[in-house]
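Human: My hope is that you can spare some time for a protein that puzzles me. I am handing you a single protein, as its sequence and its fold in token form. Could you go through the record with me and say what the backbone is doing? Take your time, and here it is.
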Amino acid sequence: MCYTFILLAFLVSCKSVEKHNTQITKLHTIQDLHQDIDKLYKQLKRHHPKLYQYTPKAVLDFKFDSLKQAINRPMDSRAFYKQLAPVVAQVKQGHVSVGLEGKRFTRKELKALKKKKFEFYDLDIVYLEGKLWVKNYKGNDSTLIGKEIVRINGESATKLAEVYKTRFASDGYNKTLYNRYVSKSFSLYYYRDKGFLDSLQVTFKAKDSVFSKVLRRIDKNPKKDNKDSISASAEDIKPKKRSLEDKKENRLAKKQFRKQKRKRGYIPKDKNFTRNFKYIGKDSTIAYMKLRSFTNGNYKRFYKEVFAKIDAKNTSHFILDLRDNGGGRIAEIDYLYGYLANKPFQFIKESEVMSRTPFIKSVMSNTIPNSIKVIGSLFYPVVATYSLIKTKTYNDKIYFNFNKYTKIKAPKPLAYTGKLYVLINGNSFSASSILSTHLKATKRATFIGEETGGAYNGTVAGVFKIYKLPESQVKVGFGLMQIEAPQKQNPDGFGIKPDVKVVPNIMDIQSGIDTELEWILKDIYNLD
């Protein structure tokens, strides 16, 4: 009976994979694709509270109508995605994203793939000065670092980057996010563009020399050469017994690492902690905090320890690094700002929504499994009651009140009051921009770098809905709540701008120089 069930589950799984792959690769009719477009636009109009904030309704209507006219032949899901994404990007809301359902694999295929890695994904790419460069390489060939990427499988790398920049948006009219985000997500957009590949020929350039390298899917843990194992003596290959003391130290080290991961958060892909703190400078008296996101880890414990240390040391200079911080939890940035504020504050205003039950709208999406919907329906009365209590209507608009973040609060007892510098760039987005809005509006900090990709006047996020287009299976995600600080700037549609604009050049990156941080250190030490 057990074996019959396993076999049945396997056959159903294989059938599901085959059905999905057929659906995304077959040619969809013009009528079906037009219906996908209409259904998507209807979803956006029904659920997005700021759909016409940056692009007027008449213009957006024209964009979607023009897209339908351009779809004048049958096409597969990938071709459709390439035409749809630039139109959705015209909404100019950074949290509205278009994703392409890729090829699915059977369990057996997935098991084999997990044992491999794609060398192309080891490239840490930066798009700077109109060219694609290797900023870092996680593979074995360190000579690739600092080289320009000229072509990928014969196509111009620069042209590819410029095309990919049309498939996503910043908040409003900001421009700094595009080069930064295409750097961060180039391999993702290449995958959506070309599909699953086992190898790529990449052409690199170093000064006047040009060379090519084939990047492949290789074993994560390659087997050692058999010749070496044959020639080795029994004593050489016999593993040494570790002492009890070594084992104890190893256990303690692992325990300490797990403890740090819980507190600081961890990003496995980059092998970096989410939150980092240290003292830097000539005399190690300048506090430096690097926050890669506000998404994981026990942030309260981390900030309590850090600001207790800063207070104990009477720190006079503090650098908060929000570069490439794409955002995260409102709860965390509200908590952190309590340690940076110098007067009572209201962190966010009531959030504009399109429904009195935004959490239910988020869960009841066609991308949520039916099993989850069934479980969710059990809690429907509680969630619905909570939402109705939290929402109110005035001026024909609906607002959701996060009482915890909308009430007036005082700075924390150990709040830092010294000189504060904040590092920002085009990838400073969402929650990191909301935090920066407060610090900028209250003149609490000196901002160094470039304009944030997230808007000064807020962003549509909070709770998200992911909608799958029925025919093409393309997924579109978007926020359901306008999250904004009380402060506003004119004109609307731009990010937090630096007090001092400092942008690295390729020579600095190749030399490993942190241009923006170096500027702050020179300013602190009054160096020319």
Summary: The chain is about 40% helix and 20% strand. The first strand starts at residue 97 and ends at 99. Residues 1-12, 226-235 have pLDDT under 50 and may be disordered.
